[in-house]
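Sharing in case it's useful to others searching the archive later.

Someone asked me privately for the predicted structure of Regulatory protein RecX, so I'm posting the question and my answer publicly. Question first, with the sequence:
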Amino acid sequence: MTTQPDGRRGGDAAAALDELRAAVARLERGEHGELADLGELVDEAPDGETPEDGAEQRGDPYAVARAIVLRQLTNAPKTREQLRQALARKGCPPDVAESVLDRMTEVGLVDDAAYAEMLVRSKQAGAGLARRALAHQLRTKGVDDDTAAAVLDDVDPAQERRRARELVDKRLRTLHGLDVTVQTRRLAGMLARKGYPGDVAYAVIRDALADAPEHRRD
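And my answer, the predicted structure tokens:
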């Protein structure tokens, strides 16, 4: 589990995000007295302006970049690469973007390891993705290979196999009455799309078919 620079752990990301949303909302309402805990990351904006608008009018590229990043983070957690791309789309100079992202990383608002842990837990529990598919998801989000590998090393093979069996049992109920070869092919295709290796997939499918009432022999 990743420890944030301010002492929070990766599991507290949701609480930190709620805190950030509230802080940005206060900023947009012109209530600036409680923003010190953000390490003066955001400049004050006059009433009726967003932080980004106010900073742009003052011609401060760093303040504009900070406002863009904070607004991105209020919607959902983001990786450093996703935020870098968002800044590039807004025309932020690369050196300004890197400086702001470095500061956001220092205070714990940007943490790719915590993001990766959250994504892996969510996708494994919800969609039932296995490590290969999870690695692809992390790569598309901009998580570097070393960080992704460290997080994926914590995936429990036994838990992954149990999740595969749950997926197969659920899908098998919709394939009742089909030829066993057709059932096997469709189940294998489903598990392959979710990133399960062939040996795990076929072992799980074999056991599930053997346990299915329609295939039991008295």
